[in-house]
Amino acid sequence: MGKTKATYTIIDVETTGRGNKITEISIFKYDGDKVVDEFTSLVNPESLIPDYITALTGIDNAMVADAPTFAEISEAILAITEDTIFVAHNVNFDYNVIRNEFKAIGGDFRRRKLCTVRLSRTLFPGFRSYSLGKLCATMEIDLVDRHRARGDAEATVTLFQKLLAHKHSETVFADFLKKGSKEATLPSHLPSAIFESIPNGPGIYYFKNKKGKIIYVGKAINLKKRVLGHFYDKKEKELNLCRETAHIDYELSGSDLVARLMEDAAIKHHFPLYNQAAKRVPKPYAVFSYEDRRGIQHLAFNTLKATPFPLQIFHSIRDCRLYLEQVCEKFELCPKYCHLQESVWTCSHYKLTTCKGVCKDEESVVDYNERANLAIEYMATSNQNIVLKEKGRHQEEEAFILIKNGLYLGYGFVEKSEQIVHMDDLEAFLIPQKETMEVQGILRKLVLQSSTIETLELH
């Protein structure tokens, strides 16, 4: 042929789906001209095969009950693939499933690899779909026993022969096999041009499947670097995510803070399959104050429904406590009278050591209440209007985050040439958002430290 001489092992695995334990494996050893060896076996995954997997592959629990475990066939897999290039349709999935099986038994598995999806995209461009079934139909390749390891692997051998016979195969194969080549790393269904178009700046990114549905949303200071990190991650969730990814969109944010807010809003709007976003509406809690029989001012928290005059509202009891800890420390209050410690005579908080002794009668109630009242006033007036200033998406722009009457309204971007003289002027540039528990967590600590926040100059 005059092409680069190498030996390949063309491989397909069937798995349990969740957990990705192998139920069947088929390996054809190909010397560039013909198949010289084969290894095919059912595999006992040592876990149950779900019904939907059985419906897809025809492999059920009874079929694999007496099959060898992966540990029992591992030496055969090592032997047949030794000194070969690992080839599969959507190679990262099959390769990483096998690597993880070796890792589970204390072994290691490393081979150079080629993906017949990505090779087909390059050498046979313009097809509507590059799934194995559609490619075989388009290229008139016999595909029998679809979704069984041997049937899929045998069809992939024929596809690989066509790829190898292409006049540009030597150059393309060499490029794909170069150390550090992204072609071996990117998801098989993702065109490399899409990845290359992603910038290095801060923002959020959307992984989409073949139907254009958003399946994951993430944020990053460096979009391209973070996205690439997904493709190197070998965890099961990442393998499945990358297997489904066919397109990536992005939005620039200008800063990490705005990216965090954008990410939260996008997750709440789309509820992507691979984001662990809480779908339940959390119960609101509130911080309030009262005076006890000794005249000592207390800060406490309860459900919003049970709080007649809330000073601050939160979407979780954890956030209430964290906020009270910050206030307690800022105003040197007693953890006992901030209800951060219950059923104690005197405070002994593991982290807060700001108490001046009111709980031990070492400080007067009057002196303590002076600071407690400052804290109450601070909480009541921190429901203020704040504009947080952030970097824009380019040099001639600034980003802002708008908090009005203590409520987060959203973020926006303003050209530096715009004349902004009042907070209301920003509303024309505002991208409205809802305040959520996650947003509160992102912003509240910043607002508590408002003396260090850079605010947008209104001139």
What does this protein look like?
It contains 15 helices and 15 strands. It is of the alpha+beta class. The protein is 35% helix and 20% strand. A hairpin with a 6-residue loop joins strand 1 and strand 2 (22-30). Strands 3-2-1-4-5 form a five-stranded mixed sheet, with helices on both faces.
SSE blueprint and pairings:
Blueprint: E1 8-15, E2 22-30, E3 35-42, H1 51-57, H2 61-64, H3 70-81, E4 85-88, H4 91-104, E5 113-115, H5 116-123, H6 132-138, H7 149-165, H8 169-177, H9 192-196, E6 203-208, E7 214-220, H10 223-232, H11 236-244, E8 247-252, H12 256-270, E9 285-291, E10 297-303, E11 312-314, H13 317-330, H14 365-381, E12 386-391, E13 397-404, E14 407-415, E15 430-432, H15 437-448
Helix pairs in contact: 4-11, 5-7, 13-15
- Average pLDDT confidence is 89
Uncertain stretches: none
- State the share of residues found in helices, binned by percent: 25-40%
The helix count comes to 15
Side-by-side strand order of the widest sheet: 3-2-1-4-5
What is the string of helix and strand elements?
EEEHHHEHEHHHHHEEHHEHEEEHHEEEEH
Q: Class by helix and strand content?
A: alpha+beta
Number of distinct beta strands? 15
The largest sheet, given as strand count, sense and whether it forms a barrel, is: 5 strands, mixed
Q: How far from one another are the termini?
A: 74 Å
Given the C-alpha coordinates, what overall shape results?
Answer: elongated
Q: What is the CA-atom radius of gyration, in angstroms?
A: 30 Å
Beta fraction: 15-25%
